[in-house]
Amino acid sequence: MSESRESRPRRFLVCEPRHFAVQYTINPWMNPDRPVDVDLARDQWQELIRTYRAHGHTVDSLEPVPGLPDMVFSANAACVVEGRVFGSLFHAPQRRPESVHYDTWFKAAGYDVYRPEAVSEGEGDLVWTGRYILAGTGFRTTREAHREAQEFLGHPVIGLTLVDPYFYHLDTALFVLDDANVCYYPEAFSPGSREVLRRLFPDAVLATREDALAWGLNSVSDGRHVFIAPQAEVLCERLADRGYVPVPVDLSEFHKAGGGIKCCTQEIR
Ligand code: ARG
């Protein structure tokens, strides 16, 4: 059975990995002794941008800053809904200086930026479904930030507790397919949060642990095309069975920093 899905053009903000490296350890994926191939990382990232453009999406980029090796993960900079920019306060001191650069970009682009008082890592943990915000907590973004996000964005925020350190951001364990459905890895969540997801999305596409560890859930969907790690083989098949079109983009060098496709992609709505 395969329904025909419709894509909607998106606007993305990205940051070139010119200074990308693994220099510290703030999640279990990062090992500074394991070298990053900088040229390969640049090629993989450029392929992602080319692929977005080839599918009709607009891609803006901001200038990377030396000394901020994780700045390529633009998703963590904010959560933007209906032109309201809910900025970030990073958990790790190493990443805190990124915010000022992102905020400057948003201001120059004509947006006011709300600066949260509690730790909040943008779309890494605050995921807009089209009707409300699913909000991860447990490792980075705090419950207090969920409250701030709801107050500022004026949309319901539904808290979900993450329990596995390999899936430390919500966007490593769940992504939105379209206005009606999501895809996720249940075991990344506490039993209560799993139940919430089951009630909200009885038809969700579920991923295996293997595909979650292969970064299959750090994907971007435009409603039809799913830009996804090719290593998540079973998930690609499951998505195709549901009428989505998997578009493989390999960001293996970024997995070494604990990031993938979605982490490198901030959506501006
Ligand atoms: N090294 C970065 C960190 O630990 C990776 C961020 C990945 N971003 C994401 N949206 N999951 O903060």
Characteristics of this structure?
269 residues; alpha/beta; L-arginine/glycine Amidinotransferase, Chain A; three-stranded mixed beta sheet; binds arginine
Number of domains: 1
Number of strands: 15
Q: Which molecules are bound besides the chains?
A: arginine
Q: Which structural class matches the secondary elements?
A: alpha/beta
* C-alpha termini separation: 32 Å
**What does the main sheet amount to?**
3 strands, mixed
What is the CATH architecture assignment?
5-stranded Propeller
How are strands sequenced across the largest beta sheet? 2-1-15
* Fourth-tier CATH superfamily name: L-arginine/glycine Amidinotransferase, Chain A
CATH first level: Alpha Beta
- Helix coverage percent of residues? 10-25%
Question: Under CATH, the topology is which?
Answer: L-arginine/glycine Amidinotransferase, Chain A
| Broad shape | globular
Radius of gyration: 17 Å
The helix tally amounts to 7
What does the average pLDDT come to? 97
Describe the structure.
There is one protein chain. This protein is α/β, with parallel strands linked by helices and 269 residues long. The protein has a single domain (9-266), classed as L-arginine/glycine Amidinotransferase, Chain A. Helix content is 25%, strand content 20%. It has 7 helices and 15 strands. The chain has helices spanning 38-54, 98-108, 143-153, 191-200, 209-213, 233-241, 252-255; strands spanning 11-15, 58-62, 78-81, 84-87, 113-114, 126-128, 133-137, 157-161, 174-176, 182-184, 205-206, 220-221, 225-228, 245-248, 266-267. The strands form 5 sheets. Strands 2-1-15 form a 3-stranded mixed β-sheet, with helices on one face. A 3-stranded mixed β-sheet has the order 3-4-5, with helices on both faces. It has a 3-stranded mixed β-sheet with strand order 6-7-8. The radius of gyration is 17 Å and the shape is globular. The protein starts with 10 loop residues before the first strand and ends with a strand. It binds arginine. The site of arginine has 16 residues, from loops. One of its GO terms (molecular function) is amino acid binding. This is N-Dimethylarginine dimethylaminohydrolase.
